[in-house]
Amino acid sequence: MLNIEKYGAVDIGSNAIRLLVVSVIEQNGKDTLFKKTSLVRVPIRLGAEVFLNGKISEASANRMIDAMQAFSLLMKTHNVKRFRACATSAMREAANGLQVAETIKAKSGININIIDGKEEANIIASTNLKSIIEAEKVSLYVDVGGGSTEFTLFANGKTLSSQSFKLGTVRLLEGLVEESIWDDMELWIKKETKDLKGISLIGSGGNINTIFKKSGKKIGKPLSYFYLSSYYELIKSLSYEERITELDMNPDRADVVIPATRIYLSAMKWSKAKNIFVPKIGLSDGIVRSLYNEKVAASQKHI
């Protein structure tokens, strides 16, 4: 006998807003399955204006309201039983972030949780990330977003350390990242990994997912430093228009892919990682997992 429920996750990032709908399939005596049913991505780039002007514009706020009303209807149509919406660095840094969140709740019924970098990393860690990481190996998890990059270092199946840096693709495009932040990131990675050998990167974010998809590699196989470095040279050699037409990239991906690849390559270089694994997980997946974990914990209390 299967028990099937649909869960929803809304991820309000600096580069885009996403709705993920997942079918959670509980089986007697077997592991619960998480099957992605629908993913809707709306390219509202909040970071571009927030990091420059300190607030969300009226036009973007109205687009967000429209998107959240649409997401609310989609979740109703999918018969979603549980959902959560989380916003990261752009809304966190916007002077009117809380005000916009209140308006969205009033007009769509969706309550937005504005989370910090550490909480974001914890939510992502609630995915099946640890099942991907081999217990005896060392892995540096890197999640590159529009406003920030989160790092988590795993060894012997445990979390050793984690750190968030205000170094994201949209910030870099807008010229808002000081060289000292790159220096801080380099120092942190080298310090945390200096006594560790055989490190592999685990990359998440829309950019590395796009690169992996275009590589033709099978799921579970890594990209090498050499491959990523060659790809970086390729995309830098093409114009924005050529990346759209020749590499078949979405317009809102074709610009941020360059700074994102630079971040992944830098992390590989400083940690001496030769490979990067791309399991295609992110904040939305973590939200669904954390919702399910909360449900299980609540049901166990009543036993």
Automatic annotation (TrEMBL):
Any one GO molecular-function label of the UniProt entry: pyrophosphatase activity
Pfam families given in the database record: Ppx-GppA
Ppx/GppA phosphatase N-terminal domain residues: 41-291
InterPro entries xrefs: ATPase_NBD (IPR043129), GppA/Ppx_hydrolase (IPR050273), Ppx_GppA_N (IPR003695)
Protein name (record): Exopolyphosphatase
Source lineage: Bacteria, Pseudomonadati, Bacteroidota, Flavobacteriia, Flavobacteriales
